[in-house]
């Protein structure tokens, strides 16, 4: 039921997630709009298909790891999309691990459930969709230690658990469709603000004559300790293997963080909830994107916002 996995979106995260599935012994077929990325897989003998539809035709399960809602909609409902091969689909399970808005997740899950299956597979007569965004960043994607937050039918989540555990070490079932992405938006809201807090403190520390490595030691055993100060330090030279140590490349881009804050603010507006610090944080990440750093990791806020220096 889970043997043949189709993976679409092989970027900073998806590349490693698909690789971990291959290493775990699954039969993986991939697709990305980036030809260079596809080549990296075809050179390893992994079938790289030209359209999402072709991937769907040879898969039991589909996983998508795309930048935003519009890309996910495109891959599902576009001309050669996952749902374009008629009323009967081969995959019984569709897992979207992209960080998108809960409304789009619900809309697509509803759409998917209206199709039929080619042959009897899985739990229901109709295909099922789970929203399963992740946390942990590129290092966790590479190490296979991601956390998955899952929304949708619980039986399908339990059936797919071995798949999640080949790419991650924690799975948290969050309830009905859209709840996985809702949880993810809350997580990233706190993460965005936490990055600004740590960056502001470290920048002030340096201005007051305290080195970043000293302040990191202080944070490690004090009340400001957090994932950013422990595992994703934004100050170059403090920590190896994080984006700040490689010119802020290859992590979670400022553009994606600004996108997630937009989604969190839209979700808040929908339920009449005010989140003033989130809008302040959004303005800062947006400004960084406008100034040309949209493809740099979001931790580059330390250098470009707080130190005021140019690249
Ligand atoms: P990315 O931009 O590095 O990768 C996205 C990939 O999707 C690219 O290879 C791109 O070519 C491909 N793509 C875009 N549109 C496509 C389409 N229509 N058809 C096929 N392929 C298409 O993004 P990423 O950093 O891997 O993030 C992916 C998702 O995961 C985002 O929603 C992001 O918010 C979320 N996320 C990222 C991180 C992180 O640290 N990078 C952490 C957690 C969650």
Automatic annotation (TrEMBL):
<dbReference type="InterPro" id="IPR013328">
    <property type="entry name" value="6PGD_dom2"/>
</dbReference>
<keyword id="KW-0520">NAD</keyword>
<protein>
    <recommendedName>
        <fullName>3-hydroxyisobutyrate dehydrogenase</fullName>
        <ecNumber>1.1.1.31</ecNumber>
    </recommendedName>
</protein>
<dbReference type="GO" id="GO:0008442">
    <property type="term" value="F:3-hydroxyisobutyrate dehydrogenase activity"/>
</dbReference>
<dbReference type="InterPro" id="IPR011548">
    <property type="entry name" value="HIBADH"/>
</dbReference>
<keyword id="KW-0560">Oxidoreductase</keyword>
<dbReference type="Pfam" id="PF03446">
    <property type="entry name" value="NAD_binding_2"/>
</dbReference>
<keyword id="KW-0101">Branched-chain amino acid catabolism</keyword>
<dbReference type="InterPro" id="IPR002204">
    <property type="entry name" value="3-OH-isobutyrate_DH-rel_CS"/>
</dbReference>
<dbReference type="GO" id="GO:0050661">
    <property type="term" value="F:NADP binding"/>
</dbReference>
<dbReference type="Pfam" id="PF14833">
    <property type="entry name" value="NAD_binding_11"/>
</dbReference>
<keyword id="KW-0809">Transit peptide</keyword>
<dbReference type="GO" id="GO:0006574">
    <property type="term" value="P:L-valine catabolic process"/>
</dbReference>
<dbReference type="InterPro" id="IPR006115">
    <property type="entry name" value="6PGDH_NADP-bd"/>
</dbReference>
<dbReference type="GO" id="GO:0005739">
    <property type="term" value="C:mitochondrion"/>
</dbReference>
<comment type="similarity">
    <text>Belongs to the HIBADH-related family. 3-hydroxyisobutyrate dehydrogenase subfamily.</text>
</comment>
<dbReference type="InterPro" id="IPR008927">
    <property type="entry name" value="6-PGluconate_DH-like_C_sf"/>
</dbReference>
<dbReference type="GO" id="GO:0051287">
    <property type="term" value="F:NAD binding"/>
</dbReference>
<dbReference type="InterPro" id="IPR029154">
    <property type="entry name" value="HIBADH-like_NADP-bd"/>
</dbReference>
<comment type="pathway">
    <text>Amino-acid degradation; L-valine degradation.</text>
</comment>
<dbReference type="InterPro" id="IPR036291">
    <property type="entry name" value="NAD(P)-bd_dom_sf"/>
</dbReference>
<keyword id="KW-0496">Mitochondrion</keyword>
<feature type="domain" description="3-hydroxyisobutyrate dehydrogenase-like NAD-binding">
    <location>
        <begin position="178"/>
        <end position="304"/>
    </location>
</feature>
<feature type="domain" description="6-phosphogluconate dehydrogenase NADP-binding">
    <location>
        <begin position="4"/>
        <end position="175"/>
    </location>
</feature>
């Amino acid at each position: 039921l889970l043997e043949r996995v189709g993976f679409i979106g092989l970027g900073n995260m998806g590349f490693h997630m698909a690789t971990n599935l291959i290493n775990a012994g699954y039969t993986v077929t991939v697709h990305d709009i980036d030809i260079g990325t596809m080549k990296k897989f075809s050179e390893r003998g992994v079938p790289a298909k030209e359209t999402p539809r072709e991937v769907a035709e040879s898969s039991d399960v589909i996983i998508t790891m795309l930048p935003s809602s519009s890309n996910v909609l495109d891959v599902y409902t576009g001309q050669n999309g996952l749902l374009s091969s008629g009323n009967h689909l081969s995959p019984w399970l569709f897992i979207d691990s992209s960080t998108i808005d809960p409304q789009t997740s619900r809309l697509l899950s509803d759409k998917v459930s209206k199709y039929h299956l080619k042959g009897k597979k899985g739990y229901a007569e109709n295909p099922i969709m789970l929203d399963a965004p992740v946390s942990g960043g590129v290092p966790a994607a590479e190490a296979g230690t991601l956390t998955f937050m899952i929304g949708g039918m619980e039986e399908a989540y339990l059936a797919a658990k071995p798949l999640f555990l080949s790419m991650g070490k924690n799975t948290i079932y969050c309830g009905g469709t859209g709840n996985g992405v809702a949880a993810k938006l809350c997580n990233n809201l706190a993460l965005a603000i936490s990055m600004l807090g740590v960056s502001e403190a470290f920048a002030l520390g340096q201005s007051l004559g305290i080195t970043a490595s000293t302040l990191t030691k202080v944070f490690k055993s004090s009340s400001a300790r957090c994932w950013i100060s422990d595992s994703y330090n934004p100050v170059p030279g403090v920590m190896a293997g994080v984006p700040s140590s490689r010119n802020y490349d290859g992590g979670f881009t400022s553009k994606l963080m600004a996108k997630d804050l937009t989604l969190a603010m839209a979700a808040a507006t929908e339920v009449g909830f005010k989140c003033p610090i989130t809008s302040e944080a959004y303005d800062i990440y947006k400004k960084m994107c406008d100034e040309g750093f949209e493809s740099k990791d979001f931790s580059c806020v330390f250098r470009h916002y707080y130190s005021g220096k140019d690249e």
